[in-house]
């Protein structure tokens, strides 16, 4: 199913980038996917094969109208309903965000620090990460006081660990080895 979600995401990325509406479509799709995931009734309605397509399309049309969704989102959702793929909406949304990041040269960084970083510290950290990766970096921030001080950064499968806790662990390992 993941491969199918990626195909829809790639096709949507093609259309959204061609029309210059990638960020708007990303936000709309995420909002619609969240709405579906939060409503068991809506999720079951869209997944139920006994419900006629026309009825599902009518509900989707009304929801798009209520959300003031774009024509691109409308077309995607109607294609998903026609092909009985509405259950993949959440996976498609995630795959679409990842596809956009890849095409636009954006890396997603998860920064965990012992304390809140100031605006200046965040800016400097992002600049450093951009130099390291050669990509534009979008960072999200978490707190973990167990790090003692410093920060850990995860970009994809790569982890940069500059925490005091990790430095103490490395020192402990070196001392134990001697």
Strand order of the largest sheet: 2-1-3-4
Question: Roughly how many Å is the radius of gyration?
Answer: 21 Å
Please report which band the strand proportion falls in: under 5%, 5-15%, 15-25%, 25-35%, 35-45% or over 45%: 5-15%
Unreliable residue runs: none
CATH H level, superfamily name of the largest domain: N-terminal domain of the delta subunit of the F1F0-ATP synthase
β-strand number: 4
Separate helix tally: 8
Count of discrete domains: 2
> What about the largest sheet?
4 strands, mixed
Structural class of the helices, strands and pairings?
Answer: alpha+beta
Provide the CATH architecture of the largest domain: Orthogonal Bundle
Distance between the termini: 51 Å
Based on Cα principal axes, name the global outline.
Answer: elongated
* Portion of residues within helices: 55-70%
Mean pLDDT: 90
Written as H for each helix and E for each strand, in order along the chain, the element string is HHHHHHEHEEEH
CATH level 1 class label of the largest domain: Mainly Alpha
């Amino acid at each position: 199913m993941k491969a199918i979600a990626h195909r829809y995401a790639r096709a949507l990325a093609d259309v959204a980038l061609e029309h210059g509406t990638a960020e708007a479509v990303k936000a709309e799709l995420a909002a619609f996917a969240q709405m579906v995931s939060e409503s068991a009734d809506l999720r079951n309605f869209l997944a139920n094969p006994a419900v006629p397509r026309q009825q599902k399309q009518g509900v989707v049309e009304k929801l798009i109208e209520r959300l003031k969704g774009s024509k691109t989102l409308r077309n995607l959702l109607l294609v998903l309903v026609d092909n009985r793929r509405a259950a993949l909406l959440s996976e498609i949304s995630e795959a679409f965000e990842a596809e956009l990041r890849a095409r636009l040269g954006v890396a997603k960084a998860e920064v965990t620090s012992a304390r809140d970083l100031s605006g200046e510290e965040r800016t400097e950290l992002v600049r450093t990460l951009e130099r390291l990766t050669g990509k534009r970096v979008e960072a999200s921030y978490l707190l973990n006081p167990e790090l003692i001080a410093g920060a850990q950064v995860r970009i994809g499968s790569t982890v940069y660990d500059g925490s005091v806790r990790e430095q103490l662990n490395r020192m402990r390992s070196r001392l134990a080895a001697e």
